[in-house]
Specification:
mainly alpha, two-stranded antiparallel ribbon
Length: 435
């Protein structure tokens, strides 16, 4: 489903890019636009259903923590269906009036990017708290990348709405050769572009740090070629050498040049998003526990969609039909997936630490009573039975308080208990030998 959505969004943004070179599309393309809206409706329903099925809440004890998470889930669901309603209203406007109101573009960008800003800001705050605890370079770079993405969302809202202020309020079915545009607000235009490029570079840097161990598997040369190509591809659209290389075509056939140029760079951000998502995908593969694996896959999906959806600038040209509108409508949902996956995985791993502490304390307590005869199988089994029972209760309490399933299963509990018992025995034996 995620692959289908990404392909549909690439087609959506390709159409609006091409439309700027051929003078618009017209009324006959409403059916195609309706198809992209259908992809949005089905896609968001499938994603939200997947999240609900893989991230169930425990109903027995509702705490403020769970209530906050539940409120977030409800808010995201309501917002996504509100966006769908606006998209349907745009279709109806075009069918019955051969026009649509710019307010629809404003509303979708404001809602989708506003939700993205909030979620990314919350996630950046969490990364900052994690960095203060362990001073890890990877955590620091991800924090900077996510913070820049969050700021970029605000600039996207301001920049696009300022541009809409200078244009018509109602967009009619009139074809005109747009080709490109000159921004009326250089400050916010530059700020949006700068944060967009910087967020891409920072996320790329975080990704290569996270995947650097792969350089030993495939060789440093192959590794750096694989990770540098997406960055070079993305940055090449901002330098004039490419334009000079096709100077003759640009002068002789500007329409063809515009089509070729736009098609080449349509997948620049999606390609980067896929690379960034692969980093989380590889982390997921290294986890044997299914809960953490699914959380990291959710993060990977969110990352892929996030960079694919973050392309609002062509809507400034107010195309008819407004292709590209469906793409930016995924921005908030993508941020939600990214936030939810990282947040849930961190809580699950945190639970493991609490459970390990609980197992260790229980093992020590039980050992004080039975350690003199711990060599017998019955006593080991008795300790195991008591500790597993106590840990299972602790695990259930933690899940009730957080709403997140722990990555620890009963087999993990037994394995760690055996490690704790062996360590306790070694410590006691060492003490006896010293005596």
């Amino acid at each position: 489903m995620i692959c289908t959505i990404i392909i549909a969004l690439v087609i959506d943004i390709s159409i609006v890019r091409i439309a700027t070179s051929i003078g618009g599309l017209g009324q006959s393309y409403i059916a195609l636009f309706t198809g992209t809206v259908l992809v949005f409706g089905v896609g968001q329903y499938a994603i939200l259903a997947f999240v609900r099925s893989e991230h169930k809440f425990i109903e027995h004890k509702i705490t403020s923590h769970i209530s906050g998470r539940r409120l977030l889930d409800i808010a995201v669901t309501v917002i996504q269906y509100a966006l769908l309603a606006i998209l349907v209203s745009v279709i109806l406007q075009m069918v019955f009036t051969s026009s649509y109101h710019v307010f629809s573009l404003r509303a979708i960008i404001f809602i989708s990017y506003g939700l993205s800003f909030i979620l990314l800001a919350l996630l950046a705050k969490r990364f900052f708290s994690w960095f203060k605890s362990n001073r890890n370079m990877v955590v620091l770079v991800y924090m900077l990348a996510i913070t820049t993405l969050s700021i970029n969302s605000i600039f996207a809202i301001i920049y696009t709405n300022n541009e809409f202020d200078t244009g018509p309020t109602v967009i009619h079915n009139i074809k005109s050769l747009t080709g490109g545009f000159e921004s009326s607000d250089i400050v916010f235009s530059s700020a949006y572009t700068l944060t967009s490029v910087l967020s891409f570079i920072l996320m790329w840097a975080a990704t290569i740090l996270l995947l650097k161990h792969y350089s030993r598997r495939i060789g440093k040369a192959k590794y750096w070629i694989a990770v540098v190509i997406p960055l070079a591809y993305f940055l090449s659209q901002f330098q004039p050498l490419f334009l000079y290389s096709f100077g003759d075509l640009r002068l002789e056939n500007p329409v063809l040049f515009g089509i070729v140029y736009n098609l080449i760079y349509t997948i620049a951000k999606p390609a980067g998003g896929i690379l960034f998502g692969i980093a989380f995908w590889t982390i997921a593969k290294n986890f044997s526990n299914q809960n953490v694996k699914k959380y990291m896959l959710i993060s990977a999906f969110g990352m892929m969609l996030l960079f694919t959806a973050n392309q609002p600038t062509f809507l400034i040209l107010t195309p008819y039909p407004p292709f590209g509108l469906v793409t930016v409508s995924f921005m908030g949902l993508a941020s939600y997936l990214f936030y939810l996956g990282i947040y849930s995985a961190s809580i699950s791993v945190s639970e493991d630490t609490k459970l390990r502490q609980s197992i260790r304390k229980a093992a020590i307590k039980e050992s004080t009573e039975f350690l003199d005869s711990i060599g017998t199988a019955e006593m080991v089994q008795e300790i195991e039975r008591r500790v597993v029972s106590m840990t299972r209760a602790t695990k259930e309490n933690i899940e009730k308080e957080t709403g997140i399933s722990s990555s620890f299963d009963e087999e993990d509990i037994r394995d760690y208990l055996q490690e704790a018992i062996q360590e306790i025995k070694r410590v006691r034996n060492k003490g006896n030998n010293q005596i």
